Amino acid sequence: MGHLIIIDNPAIKPVEETLREVDQVLKTQPVPDADAMAQLVKDLYSFGTKIMNDAPEAAEKLFRKVTELDPNYANGYINWGFSLHKQGRNDEAVDQYKISLTKAPEPALALDVLTWLGGKDIRRYQDVLDVLKAQPDLIAPLDKEKLLGDMEFQLKHFSKAAEAYECARQLAPADPFILKALGDVHSALLQEAKASQYYTQAIALVTESVDTAEQAISALPPVAPGQVQPDRNSLETTVIEARKTLARLHYEIGDTLLSLDADLEQVWTHWKEAIQIAPGAESTLSIADMLYNNGLANKDRLTKAADTYTTYNQASPTPDSDAYVLLNLGLCHYYLYNYPAAIETLTKAAQPAGDYQHYANYWLGVLYNSQRKFEEAEPYYQRAFRQKPDEYFIIEGLILCLSALGKKDEALAICQKTKARYSTSQERTAELTYLIGNIHLDFKELDKALHYYEDALQQDPLHVFARHNMAHILEKKGEYGKARDEWNNAKSNYLDLLAKSTPA
Amino acid sequence: MNLKNYNLNDFSAYLSSILFSVDYDFDKAESQLLNVYAKEPGNLLYVLLLCQLYQKKIEYCSLPNGDTMQDETELANYAQKGLDMLDKKPRTAWIDSDFQNQGAFLSYKANLEEALKAYQQAISINPKATDARIGLGVVYQKQKKWNAARAVFEQARRLDPNDFTLRCNLAEILIEQDQFKEAEEHLAFVRRLTDRRHLDALILSGRLYARLGDKARDNDDTVEADGRFDKAIRFLDKAAQADNYGDFSRKITPAESYTVHYLSGYCQIRQLQAREKKGSLIERFNFATESQRNVDKALVKFGRIPEYAHNSFEANQAVRQLKKYRKESSPLKEVGAQGLKGTVVVILAILVLISAQIFFLFRETSLVRAITQPDVVCYVQPSKVQPLLKLDSAGDVKLTQFARLTFNHPDSLIARWQRDMGETIRIERGWIENADAKPTPLLSEGFYVFITFASLLFIIAGLALPELTKLKVGSIELEKAKLETITTTTSLNITSSASAASSASR
Q1: Which residue from B5, B8, B89 is facing A392, i.e. has the nearest CB?
Q2: How many domains does chain A have?
């Protein structure tokens, strides 16, 4: 077993090869020694963990192997679940997460898993409750009570939620978030006075700690230049942290009120406070994100989101360095039709290399495209395409732009090249064949477009847009009977896909 | 299909567009679309689709009570929402599609002047915007600015020469401008490429040929008019089949259906009026029967127009007049019976004449004599038989029997006597009672002459009978004047509804 070295770099050694080698070694040594096996599991696990964000499909195979080799390794199941979640296979991910909870995971890890299961995306509230009932010692008692309260709250069992939060309060009387949670229960029960009382209590609790620390700082003797005063530093850190907590509290109160359909002004009161207290805190970014994500149809929310992102950016020790913030700020400007500001911000967002560079370039392309400035849009799309040649939306945007510029051959070449790279994936090939059909449709080459749509459907019979466009072309050609058949097929496809996308 | 690449709400929206524009399932489409609109109220596509849905619902759901008010309110409501949505974007940032959408929403709100400006702006930004040109053309059409509409549609046709709806729009305008030849070229193009399945092309072709028929009739070119009306009827009858959708470009709207029935009935009557009456009796008879069939067909077509239809008043009027016309001037009664009477008289007269000639020529033959001369009862006088009985007791029985017989001619009696009695007892002519009685012949020379002349007279009379019934045929002409009134009250409905027909497809 000692001969096998796991190279956790897919560029050097692909996952398939690694797994083949593992199988070969296991064949030659059917009963390996425990240490070697533990090392192998650890190596495979670490390889998988490294690649699971970028290559979740490959990581999934590694974690599958890890759990095969060590069926009691909770972390293996957790990361397996995560790689499935990254692929959008949430139901399968939930199964793996649940298995991981039966393998005695670390309490902190178990809490993460339970929080994810009971989070806003997955919403397996009852599952979490069942796990906590079956394994009461899985996580720390305080965490357990808080989580129980959260799950009961989500299930609208408000009295049970209140009971759980009260138990948590017994365990941590100074925790402002438990008071806030109790306030949430009363808000949900429309007992606004009581809810407000709890919120005030929670805010007062944190404000008091901020004040206390600030008073302590002011009580300290003044610092001479160049002099280091450890107490002051520590107190200042305490103040900063307490302010952040206070800001977080305000943010979460606002968030709860928003989820309970409270008036935006009421929510904004808390959020404004949070931004003022700690402009550079995570809570400010969360507020900006919340406003942006729910504000596309609302000018007021978008304006507030833009202001909040701006505040957060300016409060940063290194302004204009967070590409994510700049990207979202640029998009706020774009949706507010403030094109010059959007161009300026997105151009800044496109500077640093990273996860958001291709997005920034893509959106710059979209921005120029939406103003019919196709020639200015093209270089940005091209840049985004070079940075992420596999992203469908980038290929689609670039092709639209090239078609508008009359560069049919160039657009076709891009599709063909990308298609050649994915000859093994039917789904990807179908997407690209569909795009080729679109190019021909743009140039009014109906028969050619029809041919490509038929091809796309052969590769992926559920490609509803290819079918939709095919029916449209048949109608344009006057073949109404055939068109009608295709419309009916498209209808069934739409229904199937919608059913597929609806969470169980 | 990788669902991550798409907005799933768009799937629901596109599904609903199939539901309302292909299945005509407006309720399902409405709930689906309102659902996605609630999720993304800022999505302009959903608002546009909602407007299209309500527009279609208004066109296709004209119920007996004609209550489309709610849908009209919804249409105006969502069109306003669309305009409000567009207003959020600063006017300086507007591109051609924004102006085009504005034009569409303003058209839904029937604000044609403003819609016109919006479409013009869209075209000025993007001269290749075919949809904006079509929108502009439709607005001009609604304003009856035919020349402007035609120019815009022509430009759009140059951008997309194979667009069938565009060709139909052009044809409609050309019909309005009496440019029938060019209109037919466009319609023939669409009919040929769609295998006569494009509903607008069929309705417009019906309308075009109806107009062409009228024109030919005005020029007294009855044969041409007949053919054109016939064509119009065929196009319209085919268009009426789109009631079941089948493999037509779309389903016919109730309003279009009523117009098509009316126009078809109109053409049926016009065709009847256009047909030339030939002189011969048989041709006249056929014509009359054909006319009867046309009237029946027209009645069926007018009868398909329900009470709540926009043209029900005219249809009812036409039905009443046609029924009256049918009752008063049934072709069988007016033309067929007269023709039959004359023929029968001629045939009978000829038969009598021939018979008279035959009888006269062969009047001396026994057969003819037997027919033409009445029988005389002859028998042997009993006074002559008694002595004979004494002479021949053996022939007693025969004689006794013979004495009881009667004959219709003395010769017959003598022949029978000679056969029964043989040479033993010879009969004398004097023994026969009535032997010399002369029957009056039925066919005397005078009578023959009379019959001959009378027959000739009847033949002449029979042949001349249609001429005698000319007055009746004239009465049909008079009735046709009434039909004219049936077929001249329609033009308004035909025009307005056909316009609605072509706009329904957009």
Answers
A1: B5
A2: 1
